[in-house]
């Protein structure tokens, strides 16, 4: 489906607000001419002294390029009666995975269903990387879910990359899914940061809890070392010269504890998770390589899309739009409990 171009936002009956983040508010809506459900993401204009925000221009340009079954589709760019009322119009999805997991007292997906979700995510990430685009903010709340299909959304932080790599800011990716090379101030980074985030997603779906829920960068590294063991020059060449290493004083921990943390996971599953969470970014698999892993060929086999749950959790207040929200909701969720 092609983006139709700029239209009046008056053609959409706006519903309730579904989320808010750094790059705009998100509302549910109905397209009046077709009756289709849509999501409207209002572009933040308050800080723009001149012209249209560069972040929004980048996101529009990338979404026009990246047409894929598991990347949320941009339908329109809608304008309001005032210059500061500009909305990106997206396909509507029923839930986001963060809200689904928050609202479920027990693991909402079986292992076969988790495998299908992971394959869909990895397929979207592989496609982005093959188009030379980094997502840079893969997290649960940026994964939409509707009728068995996962959609990767929110490309506000996405950037094109190439070879040789050029420096980008390391302050990307929500903390719980941020690769160690970013935490330690690597001057350049690659598509491997998205694969680390996919490892965090895999663990969280299986465990029904975030696996590395740090409250700050030091604690994030501490939790990483506790789970995987401390890195060194042998397993991660160049580790000792990373710029921010001297900022953190973290006790040495020699053991990998993936098996203890995931006792029911098969050896193939542990192997895939360990590979995604490999310290050396050059040794992480590509998304396309991860798709071919034996874990997805052993029982339980990935659930067919048609057999995936469509409305599995009645009463959930899950967001249904491509917005960004904090990974630290107040009070009630398992995410908050996991940090205590």
From TrEMBL:
Record-level Gene Ontology MF annotations: ATP binding; cyclin-dependent protein serine/threonine kinase activity
GO cellular component: nucleus
Record-annotated Protein kinase domain positions: 12-296
EC numbers: 2.7.11.22
Entries under Pfam families matching the protein: Pkinase (PF00069)
Keyword field: ATP-binding, Kinase, Nucleotide-binding, Serine/threonine-protein kinase, Transferase
Coiled-coil positions: none
Reactions the enzyme catalyzes: L-threonyl-[protein] + ATP = O-phospho-L-threonyl-[protein] + ADP + H(+); L-seryl-[protein] + ATP = O-phospho-L-seryl-[protein] + ADP + H(+)
Region entry Disordered, spans: 303-340
One biological process term in Gene Ontology: regulation of mitotic cell cycle
EC top class named in words: transferase
Domain of life of the organism encoding this protein: Eukaryota
Chain intervals with Basic and acidic residues compositional bias: 324-340
Similarity field: Belongs to the protein kinase superfamily. CMGC Ser/Thr protein kinase family. CDC2/CDKX subfamily.
Official protein name in the record: cyclin-dependent kinase
The species this protein was found in: Guillardia theta (strain CCMP2712) (Cryptophyte)
């Amino acid at each position: 489906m092609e983006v139709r171009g700029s239209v009046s936002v008056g053609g959409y009956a706006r519903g309730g607000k579904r989320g808010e983040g750094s790059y705009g508010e998100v509302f549910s809506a109905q397209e009046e001419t077709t009756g289709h459900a849509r999501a409207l993401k209002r572009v933040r204009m308050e800080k723009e002294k001149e012209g249209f925000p560069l972040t929004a221009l980048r996101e529009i340009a990338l979404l026009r390029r990246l047409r894929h079954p598991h990347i949320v589709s941009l339908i329109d760019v809608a304008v309001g009666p005032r210059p500061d009322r500009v909305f990106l119009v997206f396909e509507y999805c029923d839930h986001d995975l963060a809200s689904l997991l928050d609202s479920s007292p027990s693991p909402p997906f079986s292992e076969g269903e988790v495998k299908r979700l992971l394959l869909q995510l990895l397929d979207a990430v592989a496609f982005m990387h093959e188009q030379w685009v980094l997502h840079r903010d893969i997290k649960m709340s940026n994964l939409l879910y509707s009728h068995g299909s996962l959609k990767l959304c929110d490309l506000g932080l996405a950037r094109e990359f190439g070879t040789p790599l050029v420096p980008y800011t390391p302050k990307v990716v929500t903390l719980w899914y941020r690769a160690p090379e970013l935490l330690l101030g690597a001057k350049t980074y690659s598509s491997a940061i998205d694969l680390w985030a996919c490892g965090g997603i895999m663990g969280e779906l299986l465990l029904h809890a975030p696996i590395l829920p740090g409250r700050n960068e030091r604690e994030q590294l501490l939790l990483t070392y506790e789970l995987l063991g401390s890195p060194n020059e042998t397993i991660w060449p160049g580790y000792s010269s990373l710029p921010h290493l001297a900022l953190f004083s973290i006790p040495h921990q020699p053991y990998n504890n993936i098996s203890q943390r995931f006792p029911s996971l098969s050896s193939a599953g542990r192997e895939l998770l360990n590979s995604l969470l490999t310290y050396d970014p050059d040794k992480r698999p590509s998304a396309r390589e991860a798709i071919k892993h034996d874990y997805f060929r052993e029982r339980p086999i990935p659930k067919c899309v048609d057999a995936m749950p469509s409305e599995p959790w009645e009463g959930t207040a899950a967001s249904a739009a491509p917005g960004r929200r904090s990974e630290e909701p107040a009070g009630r969720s398992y995410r908050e409990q996991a940090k205590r």
